[in-house]
Amino acid sequence: MGTARTARVAPGQRAITASWHRDQLPQAPECRRRLRSGVERPPGGHVTAVHPIQHATDPASRLVAAGDRAAPIRVDGLGKTFRATDGSRLRALDDVSFAVRPREIVAVVGPNGCGKSTLLRLIGGLLAPDEGAVALGGRPVSGPDPRVGFVFQEPRLLPWASVAANVAFPLRVAGDRHPERDRRVAELLDLVDLGTFAQARPHQLSGGMRQRVAIARALALEPAVLLLDEPFSSLDAITRERVGGELLRIWERTATTIVLVTHSIPEAVFLADRVLVMSPRPGRIVADIAVALPRPRAPEQVDSPAGSAAALEVRRWLVDPGETAETTP
């Protein structure tokens, strides 16, 4: 049988992100300008190694001081607390640290309410952490960032606009000229295999097709990182599996690093190189499980010895996050 390697995430390891999101619209033109000039983009979009973070005065300086260009994403000691309507404080995340290597797909699983979606929003700069820091390509994330593409549970398409217009929207906001914008939209629709549906409206598409439009839109500004928050949760099992395969096909044709939140263990094993398991609230990373499946992948590989071993290990940590798991023989 294959092995599922499990390890607790060492303190001082961390992550990074980049993307277009609706909250970024006011600063999108400036973001696009910086992307064109090459500022804030990792050299070549690739990095070679992941290094532990050397502790400095504050989390952000630790990230830069440690040569974090080695990892597209680094998360170091993230903590987040929310204030409830009754004035009480809710600790959502506590001391979350991990790193993501270039072009790696990392899935995050955990029980409801453990802070998975909060973690993605912190990585993408949509929320500010109370403790710790996030860096992308060695640069701290301090707000919504064009280096991150975000795909949510619902596609959130403009219902009155065509498929092409939805994909073009972030490009228009970024100030791309019309010919350049049309060329980029055509490339993206070809990437997600929706070229013949360019003039269709969202209500004319299936759920899986709408989610592919959302993925194309998230890739419009060529982000270094793609964050997906349970993007297939509203799809039926057959469509979900097919769209997951489409995501892998898109990933193979781009240089994008992906962090995916999912409640599905088979989906995590099928898509990811590693699965991070989170504890109940306050969320912490309790296990980092490697998925020893070759690429390109097919859905049936989830039932192979290596796929089954990885799924079993993830399930063990979800059932008892305090238990020390051993390597599966």
Task: Characterise the protein shown here.
With 329 residues, this protein is α/β, with parallel strands linked by helices. Helices cover 30% and strands 19% of the residues. The protein has nine helices and eleven strands. It has a seven-stranded mixed sheet with strand order 1-11-10-4-9-8-7, with helices on both faces. β5 and β6 form a beta hairpin. α6 runs parallel beside α7. The protein is globular and about 55 Å long. The N terminus and C terminus are likely disordered.
Search tags:
alpha/beta; 329 residues; 7-stranded mixed sheet; 4-stranded antiparallel sheet; disordered N terminus; disordered C terminus
Instruction: Give the amount of beta strand, in percent.
Output: 15-25%
Within the largest sheet, what's the order of strands? 1-11-10-4-9-8-7
The pLDDT mean sits at: 79
> H/E series, N to C?
EHHEEEHEEEHHHEHEHEEH
Low-confidence stretches: 1-70, 324-329
Rounded to an integer in angstroms, the radius of gyration calculated over CA atoms is: 19 Å
Shape: globular
Tell me the total number of β-strands: 11
Structural class: alpha/beta
Q: Helix proportion of residues, in percent?
A: 25-40%
Q: How far apart are the first and last residues' alpha carbons, in Å?
A: 7 Å
Number of helices: 9
Major β-sheet annotation:
7 strands, mixed
List the helices and strands and how they pair.
Layout: E1 6-7, H1 28-37, H2 59-65, E2 73-83, E3 89-100, E4 105-109, H3 116-123, E5 131-136, E6 139-140, E7 148-151, H4 163-173, H5 178-191, H6 207-218, E8 225-229, H7 237-252, E9 257-261, H8 265-271, E10 274-278, E11 285-290, H9 305-319
Parallel strand pairs: 4-9, 4-10, 7-8, 8-9
Antiparallel strand pairs: 1-11, 2-3, 2-5, 5-6, 10-11
